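Late entry, evening session. Most of the bench is empty. Finally got around to the prediction I had been postponing all week. Sequence below, unchanged from the version circulated by S.P.
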Amino acid sequence: MNRRTFHRAPEGERRQELIEATLDTIAELGLKGATVRQIAIRAGVTAGLVRHYFDSKDQMVAEAYRSVLAGFAAKAGDIEGDPRTRLRRFITLNLTAPVANGRSLSLWASFISQVRVDPDLAVIHREGYLGFRNDLQGLIGDFLRSEERPDSEADCRRYAIAINGMIDGLWLEGCLAGELFEEAELVSIALSSIEALLSLSLGTYETSGGASGRAAETV
């Protein structure tokens, strides 16, 4: 286990560092192994200092899950460009590292097993899911309007549900067996499938490593 070096920090920064230490510990040891003592060791602080910021391990786990969901997905508001470009980049970013990697999978597996039995985690999970889906729905609606095809809100919602499910499945495949796929293959499958669903072209793209897909955008 890699230990962090203690340093003085403002309250907000220290709290975030403890959340990151919690996530690192969960990724390595799972939820059961992520005790307050182990988290304190990882953070390079005392268990007493951890309890100064968090009332219980359950509170730490809840805050860590909220943080990991925020980091799992690209945010629509952070993506610039025209509606087509924004939708394409949103899909691409959510199927490539750092969103899709082994650490993300370990954290997802640890938390998802508790969502159905922990009401607090269930609420956080629902908020995260709806936030992502609403972002996606907004991007789809903007794109369709830019193509002079103003589908109803209900249509955009259905598209968002379907595309979200596809992203989830491809994300899981990439995290579990990324070595089985060519570079950008999963992104290409996602974009082609979305084009078929919407009956519109999403244009072309290029991976950050330079391997061309259906054309040439650096995401």
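Two things to note before I forget:
The CA atoms of residues 29 and 38 lie 9 Å apart.
The two ends are 33 Å apart (CA to CA).
Will write this up properly tomorrow.
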